[in-house]
Design a protein that fits this description.
The chain is mainly alpha-helical. Among the domains are: about 80 residues, Four Helix Bundle (Hemerythrin (Met), subunit A) (Up-down Bundle), CATH 1.20.120; about 35 residues. The chain is built from 7 helices and no strands. Helix 1 runs antiparallel to helix 2 and helix 2 runs antiparallel to helix 3. The N and C termini lie far apart (about 80 Å).
Length: about 190
């Protein structure tokens, strides 16, 4: 009984974290603060992964998304200087707000249809059979580490060269961005020196 209450507490705490972070992304005017709200949302998702015993996904969620992707967002924000206040009354693309409203209504409809479909499928599962995706053998799911070992084998032995070239490409892209945005002295300043 206590584990059930604890699971509910963790679920609701992580959900509040996610909703608070999502509201922060939308409502904060400073893009840096919005990126920090995104980090809070991503940590809430990682807590949900841990509560579902998907520890590898939780680690990837924190390392890749909360670590690398948000740092990239912050790097671009700082590099381009968009952290300064901008005039929101000037709309560069006049049709973007109506299109965003149409997309929001469509997305809400898709989520509602998915909830209805999931509700129908929950009623068809009997109490004695485990819920599983079609085509997945339950016997292969007993060893949780086999997928991680296969991923490591595939990534770090079979495709090691591609993995290392990708990391070199990312480093070159960061260095190129820094060089492209650097303010070089004007020709008159170099002639005077």
């Amino acid at each position: 009984m206590n584990t059930t209450i604890l699971e509910y507490v963790v679920f609701f705490a992580a959900s509040v974290m996610m909703l608070g972070g999502a509201l922060g992304v939308i409502l904060f005017r400073n893009p840096v603060h919005a990126a920090l709200g995104l980090i809070l949302t991503l940590f809430g998702v990682a807590v949900h992964y841990v509560s579902q015993e998907a520890h590898f996904l939780a680690a990837v969620q924190i390392i890749v998304y909360a670590g690398a992707i948000v740092v990239l967002f912050l790097f671009v924000i700082m590099l381009l200087g968009v952290d300064k206040a901008s005039d929101l009354s000037i709309e560069p693309i006049p049709i973007q707000r109506p299109l965003a409203a149409i997309m929001a209504v469509g997305l809400f409809g898709l989520v509602a249809a998915a909830v209805v479909k999931a509700g129908d499928s929950i009623g068809t599962i009997t109490a004695g059979t485990p819920a599983q995706a079609p085509g997945i053998d339950v016997a292969t799911l007993d060893n949780n580490d086999s997928n991680i070992q296969q991923l490591a084998q595939n990534l770090y032995t079979d495709h090691l060269l591609a993995f290392e070239l990708t990391s070199v490409l990312l480093i070159v892209a960061v260095a190129g961005t820094v060089l492209l945005t650097r303010k070089w002295p004007k020709a008159s300043e170099t002639d005077a020196a």
